[in-house]
Amino acid sequence: MTDIETRDQELVSLDEAANLVGKTPHNIRDYIQRGRIAKFNENGERIYRAKNGELRVSMKELRTFLSLIDQGLEKHHHAGLHPELGFHSLPEYKRTKHVHRLHPYLGKFIPQLVEWFLGRYFKEDDIILDPFMGSGTTLVQSNEMKMHSIGIDISPFNCLIANVKTSNYNIEKARSEILEVEYRVTQYSKYLTKSDEADLILFPEERMENLNSSLLHECESEYLKTWFAPRALLEMLYYRRLIPHYYYKDLLRVVLSRAVRSSRLIPHYDLATPKAPLPVGEIYWCRKHNRNCTPIDNCLTKIHAYSEDTARRLEQFNELRSDKVVTVIQADSRYVNLAEKTEDTVIKGRLIDGIFTSPPYVGQIDYHDQHNYAYELFGFPRNDNLEIGPKKKGKSRQAQSDYIDGIVAVFKNALPFLKNEANIFIVANDRFQIYPEIAKKSGMKIVDQFLRAVTKRTEQGDNPYQETIFLMRKEN
Ligand SMILES: C[S@@+](CC[C@H](N)C(=O)[O-])C[C@H]1O[C@@H](n2cnc3c(N)ncnc32)[C@H](O)[C@@H]1O
Q1: Residues 29-55: what's their mean pLDDT?
Q2: Stretch 175-190: mean pLDDT, rounded?
Q3: Of 140, 153, 369, 475, which sits most exposed with the smallest number of CB within 10 A?
Q4: Ligand 1 pocket check: which of 153, 164, 402, 430 to mutate, most ligand atoms within 8 Å of Cβ?
Q5: Whose CA is nearest to atom 5 of ligand 1?
Q6: What is the pLDDT of residue 431?
């Protein structure tokens, strides 16, 4: 072994490391602060805060990182990342398999990440809690892996999505309802555009001569009147009117909401965070398709696109689902009484085996606002002011401090319902390095950390970033 190879196995101080790789100690400190290489103490233990003179870095890790810089790869892959948790080669259709693609949701994690941890740390019949349930990824995967699950979310629309994904369906009936509504809206559209003879069956209370005006009369939302072309608006209002006549109402709401989201007068490249509606019919330069595009003027195209797709995805999940209990709770996780909410289920009285969750990140996303159109369409109550760490509150010191209080309150509220040895997985983009404080204040200890590069969230922008999966346990 050469001298340099021997030293590569070693943990060295910042000055020594800088010397060995021809960089300055300032460079090395910068790699640490950006989370590219880890901190160790003299005993080779990973540490998060170094006492005076104690800080060491791994030469092996440093050299790997520097070689990735040379290859221009360090942005996506860097030292310390868990090799199996990147899921870089996983094709899109697998990351959005079956019901995970029933409705877009900014900030959901990929099902394979949940699977990886559930499969290694839990077993059949365990109970998994997700106090920041979002669109229900943890619940779907728990059920698929024969585990019970409880999900809590503050947003009524997120709970609707999670409920629709995890409900048990008579698949034939669900399919026939989705396709029947699609057919009826198609007929209405023909009538509206006078493109073809329409087979329009009206309900007894409806009259042909004032059909359109009565639909518009039902629309009180200025938002809907502004963000949709006139034809799109009428088609979605007609769909909405049909829903109460069917059994799987929430399922139909999800199909409609997904179609409505894609029918807004917005550029194709900005589906997640549109600023203002485009003028109806006016051509715009589309950054996504690299050509001129015209804003969509109808909703029917998207209803066609998502009806059959939804039925098929339900069928796929139906083949995989287990009979384990899924409980969706619409509530504030800081204060919800879990014992009360699970009283009527078979998991009543049992302690929870673990948590798998991804809390909101400080000042990143407004979770109600991203589904504005759905709130306007269905009139669900909004709890924006109860969201922890919303984008509109920013990332200031005050925002971070409020965030810490909020997340701590959630874990303190949940811990009494967990087994003492419960594994608590928290997926976080901890750029402010506040999770060690959150753990301490909540009465938990960090027992392990897994780093992964996020290059392809299912509904996220293209900017890669690093995410930590903390494994915590109760401080007993
Ligand atoms: C990062 S998302 C979770 C995404 C989820 N893992 C998925 O795959 O869909 C965080 C969620 O926390 C919810 N949330 C924010 N504040 C909350 C609170 N006080 N109580 C319960 N849920 C809250 C938001 O509505 C949002 O859906």
Answers
A1: 83
A2: 97
A3: 475
A4: 153
A5: 134
A6: 86
Calpha distance 444→261 (Å, rounded): 40
Please name the CATH architecture into which domain 92-162+322-369+381-474 falls. 3-Layer(aba) Sandwich (3.40)
pLDDT in tens, 263-273: 999 988 887 77
Q: What angle do CA 351, 354, 356 make, to 5 degrees?
A: 140
Alpha carbons 192 and 212: distance in angstroms, whole number: 8
Ligand 1 close to Cβ of residue 358 (< 6 A): yes
Residue nearest to atom 8 of ligand 1 (CA): 108
Which atom of ligand 1 has the smallest separation from the CA of 333? 20
| DSSP assignment of 107-143 | TPPPHHHHHHHHHHH--TT-EEEETT-TT-HHHHHHH
Sign of CA dihedral 202, 208, 212, 215: negative
Q: What is the pTM of this model?
A: 0.83
pLDDT, average across residues 199-208: 87
Q: Where are the alpha helices (DSSP H) in 292-425?
A: 300-320, 338-341, 372-378, 397-414
Amino acid in the structure at residue 140: V
Angle between helices 435-442 and 397-414 (to 10 degrees): 40
Spacing, Cα 427 to ligand 1 middle (Å): 12
Separation in Å, CA 331 to CA 61, 134, 382, 387: 44, 12, 12, 11
What is the distance between the alpha carbons of residues 63 and 228, in angstroms, rounded to a whole number? 54
183-201 average pLDDT score: 93
C-beta of 360 in contact with ligand 1 (< 6 A):
yes
| Sequence-distant (≥ 6) Cβ neighbours of residue 379 within 8 angstroms | none
- Per the CB < 8 A criterion, the answer to whether 409 and 443 are in contact is no
* Residues shown for the chain: 476
> What are the domain boundaries of the chain?
3-70, 92-162+322-369+381-474, 171-263+298-313
pLDDT in tens, 319-366: 999 999 999 999 999 999 999 988 888 788 899 999 999 999 999 999
Whether 467 and 107 have beta carbons less than 8 Å apart is answered as no
What residues contact 276, with CB distance under 8 A and at least 6 apart? Answer: none
Output DSSP code: residue 385. Answer: G
User: Do 23 and 69 touch, CB atoms closer than 8 A?
Assistant: no
Amino acid (one-letter) located at 431: R
Residue 173: its pLDDT value, please? 98
* Pocket-testing residue among 161, 164, 166, 367, ligand 1, by greatest number of atoms within 8 A of Cβ: 367
Q: How distant, in Å, are the alpha carbons of 32, 37, 107 from that of 40?
A: 11, 10, 32
